[in-house]
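Known limitations

Files may contain more than one protein. Parsers should not assume a single record per file. Below, a two-record file is shown to illustrate correct handling: read the sequence, read the token line, then continue until end of file.
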Amino acid sequence: MKKFLTLILALALTASLAACGSSNAPASSGSGSAGSAAGSGDASLTTAVDGVLSMATEATFPPYEYYDGDTIVGIDVEIAQAIADKLGLKLEVTDIAFDSIIPGVQTGKYDIGLAGMTVTDERLEQVNFTDSYATGIQVVIVSPNSSITSVDDLFAEGASHVVGTQTGTTGFIYATSDIQDAGLGEVKSFAKTTDAVEALKNGQVDCVILDNQPAQALVAANADAGLSILDTEYAVEDYAAAVSKDNAALTEAINGSLKELIADGTVQTILDKYISE
């Protein structure tokens, strides 16, 4: 059984269904043909650069996107490449700050935002989302001998914890609403999840909230610090690609491609490649 991640098979989700750096140097991926978007069979389909599907991401989120040498790789990159191939486009991936992804998609600088991005009502006000391709879990990382032994401890009467998150992520949104606004503690946000984990190691925060798969990678990378992930989940989320509200044709085309890629097993194969049993 996959750890905290299952493939979304509900293909009847509508195109309006919705859903976390910073070098600005683009990294090309794969060998999608460089024809126009009309290669998808829809003459109304347009992209920011003719013949290119431009993807904005934040490449510190393994296994969804991360660097292998100078190349950005991961689940989202491979799914985007498979979509680009279906549409007859060349994929170009750009690593930017996570909280700059949606503005970049809104303004048309990038065609899609794909970064383990969760569907939320707030984000739906800014962009459209494709159908979901995976489910993720928000979890809590704690240090050794922490007084926080379950998620419930964060909401206990009289709780007063300092919670670390990455700016702009759903972890930040949840913690701000559930904990800080409720008077149960303070939320500190950081530019990267790695910075939040360093703050946990240094005693600046009591825990860190983030997605399960990168949490596992960060705990493994900091094995000497004795960090651990609580058994209880903080939240369950759907991942999808963000697309400009002004480009409904692209959302529809991506959904069509996703449907085929899920049906033929391509998406599951990509997930299996990165998510261990």
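...continuing to the second record:
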Amino acid sequence: MELLNSLIEGTRPLIAVQPLLLIVLGIVSGILGGAMPGISPSMAVALYLPFTFAMPPSLALVFLCAIYVSSNYGGSITAITINTPGTASAVVTSFDGYPLTLKGKAGTALGVSLVSSVMGGLVGAVILIIFALPLSRIALNFWPSEYFALAILGLTTVATLGGSNWKKASITVLFGLLLNTVGLDPITGVSRYTFGVIRLFDGFTFVPALIGLFALSEVFTQIELYKFKKEKSTDEKIDFIWPSIVDYWKLKWTMLRSAVIGTVIGILPGAGGTIASFISYDIEKRISKNPESFGKGSKQGVAAAEASNSSSVGGALVPLLTLGIPGSATTAVLIGALMIHDLQPGPELFVKSPEVVYGIFGSLFITNFLLLFIGLLGSRLWVKVTLIPKNILYPVIFVFSIVGSFSVKYSTFDIWTCLAFGVIGWVLKRYKFPLAPIVLGLVLGRMAEMNFRQAVMFGGYSIFFQRPLTLILLFISLLSILYPIYQSRKSKKEENVS
């Protein structure tokens, strides 16, 4: 009952003209961003982050979450219509969505995609609300040693994001931690690696670094590839005859199963919607009565992919809000947004700023319902975004990046920071290094350092071995490091045998 009352109190301020307009703006921006190939959800949120500086924290987070939710759906539009996934997780949607378009059933595919995304988003929101508060209450009893172990766990689990490239993911995590040491020591005040540059005393400004890594790096990559050709229109193939209620009813268990799977996978730091989509799709294919239809235009395949990647949003917000650990690249950007608005992500957020937390909870329901309405009205329009020439799109992104970086502190130094991180991101992407772990190193590095030193001052180095929960978290962290090593060696042995 307490949870329901808090949810109602957090949602009530959103039922007003300004918040609803912001949510609608976030949905439209997210759909367009997701539909543009190369504009990932994390990149879309990072681009709009500077525009939230003057907003109240609760409205800023609601706006960014609306972009996050809708960009996952937006990626499916181009995946279905022109076989060009706008986001990584939409790759799975294209397996059956594009074959449906070729059969003249693009409307069916778009309709299943939209409703599945909304259902997945709602299920993810419900699970988030149920588990977030109990987890935060447990975490409020953490000592500095537990917070240190938690930060290490976040770093090590996200390092597995690279899969077979776990070595590169680990290197970028360490690089992020190294960048975090630049500036004044948080306890002694001694300058570290500033080389006498006064502007580095506070370290690298987070937002310009974020925009450079995610937005400018993609612009530089596209310039290098020089793939600025206009996409061919497929309007003659696209119909907008939506599925019937009976069609949706037949897919109800597929949507529900995939939504639960997507939420659970989203909770695991570093997993995200892409992995959730692949796993849900594989499970549905295995249990389907017609597995041979998958890959040839199965509505079940589209529903499984979209329900799982949308529900992963709610799952990814669970570790972010309760433990202060980002569950995906986009939530790494959101954790930066919280810190920019002087909000410390983690269990204390429920105590110090409950209106922000429950505002986010309520906004997820409002966003998904409005997404259904806007998606139905705007499907014909969203397809047109694929026709924007890249030689116009990427210069606009570049200008937004520079202006957004400058607007943080009105400093030209931040512009150079953005450009430098853009070049760093471009080089790393060129050699297949994941960028998300850098952000997590920047965010979790300070948490790890502060709590490690506080724990040592409080109880010496032995405190890490005296508290059971600290030991458990550190042991799980060790397993997170050893598991990808084991998997890599196992796959090499199998290759040698074959």
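Parsers that stop after the first record will miss the second one. For reference, the second record is described as follows. The radius of gyration is 22 Å.
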